[in-house]
Amino acid sequence: MAESILTKQAIAGSLKELCSVKAFDKISIGELTKKCGINRQTFYYHFTDKYALLNWIYASDLLEPHMKDLNFNNWDERLRSLMEVMYKDKLFYINTIKHAGSYIIQYMLNDTEMIITKAIDTIDQNSIVCNTERHFLSRFLSYGICGILTEWVTEGMQTDPKEMSAYMLKMLKHCENAAYDFKTGKLDI
């Protein structure tokens, strides 16, 4: 593994440890570098600030491994595995979503919308759904998924990830069926 990735992982691990005892917005770069045993220059070589580090953690821990190649056939396993990772590191995710607030939620929305758009493109290869409807559907599903995930996290992840993902998948299946019915003319809006 490249040294750069190992350094980023070490910095990320230090942030996760600090987030178990202190609010994300109260953690300084100085504390982070001290915890990791690196100097500030090394931190800034890899990340512009702690929010860039946070983006990297969310991307490398959640989005890349669990949402890559997402489609309507693998929604269930991908969403469940993403939620299980969050649950295993619940103090970090609760802390960052509560204390990085709108920043991390906007990041999640943007990435989720891109992923959902790709999934919609996969099932609508004949471009039956117009671009306006495609964009609206992507935003609608993104806000729904991110909103429910955010609520689940901020309420302390009380519901088991398997159960929570099953609820979400049931709703997504209803949306998929409605989209199919709309596309085939069985449903008129």
TrEMBL record:
<dbReference type="InterPro" id="IPR009057">
    <property type="entry name" value="Homeodomain-like_sf"/>
</dbReference>
<dbReference type="InterPro" id="IPR039532">
    <property type="entry name" value="TetR_C_Firmicutes"/>
</dbReference>
<dbReference type="Pfam" id="PF00440">
    <property type="entry name" value="TetR_N"/>
</dbReference>
<dbReference type="Pfam" id="PF14278">
    <property type="entry name" value="TetR_C_8"/>
</dbReference>
<protein>
    <submittedName>
        <fullName>Transcriptional regulator, TetR family</fullName>
    </submittedName>
</protein>
<dbReference type="InterPro" id="IPR001647">
    <property type="entry name" value="HTH_TetR"/>
</dbReference>
<feature type="DNA-binding region" description="H-T-H motif">
    <location>
        <begin position="28"/>
        <end position="47"/>
    </location>
</feature>
<dbReference type="InterPro" id="IPR050624">
    <property type="entry name" value="HTH-type_Tx_Regulator"/>
</dbReference>
<feature type="domain" description="HTH tetR-type">
    <location>
        <begin position="5"/>
        <end position="65"/>
    </location>
</feature>
<dbReference type="GO" id="GO:0003677">
    <property type="term" value="F:DNA binding"/>
</dbReference>
<keyword id="KW-0238">DNA-binding</keyword>
<dbReference type="InterPro" id="IPR012738">
    <property type="entry name" value="Tscrpt_reg_DhaS"/>
</dbReference>
